[in-house]
Amino acid sequence: GAGVxxxxxxxxxxxxKYVELRCDxxxxxxxxxxxxxxxxxxxxxxxxxxxxxxxxxxxxxxDRFFAVRPEGSVSTLKIxxxxxxxxxxxxxxxxxxxxxxxxxxxxxxxxxx
Amino acid sequence: QKEVExxxxxxxxxxxxxxxxxxxxSDRVSQSFFWYRQYSxxxxxxxxxxxxxxxxxxxxxxxxxxxxxxxxxxxxxxSQPSDSATYLCAVNGxxxxxxxxxxxxxxxxxxxTL
Lengths: 113, 114
Description:
- The complex is a heterodimer.
- By secondary structure, chain A is an all-beta fold.
- Chain A has strands at residues 5-7, 10-13, 19-24, 31-37, 44-50, 53-56, 65-68, 75-79, 88-95, 103-104, 108-112.
- Chain B contains no helices and 11 strands.
- Chain B is globular and about 40 Å long.
- The interface between A and B is medium-sized, with 28 and 26 residues.
């Protein structure tokens, strides 16, 4: 596709449930990033993949959060036992190479009731 | 001290005027600097990148970088109502964690009035 795509665009879930958020980066981009944005704040880094491996997961808030990128393209962010504080917009970005310009997808708005 | 600081605004400028948006960063080893525009309810859109000291111009936009002062700015000439948005400053290449991750400011809300 022409840009980064993310699904679903909106996800409403109940506290304690498990959710998966998907990101499809720009074709050929080796680097993929997940960020989280709360209202009135800038995006906050979660995890960075270079190829299939997580090069930096220092931004994941706790062990309920996990992400994979098994074939070096599509990535899935997984959140277990969701909490109301997890409610935010989850943004995915990709870049051709590390340190290159990052292009964002439309985001997934997660609401935990 | 926040890693990337921006005035939250709103910054109000009349149509046709120059809008000046400022950003300071704390990590002296930061390498790359970006400006993103974000409309309400939308995701950030890259509008400018700058890597070396000085000015970089692209259409109505000019990015300015001063690494000695740890300062980066964005000028928007001939401001239009469609420029009304939040402008996010982002930095990478710092000391903490991977160099690739972006650290964002909280954004400056720009309002262009008719």
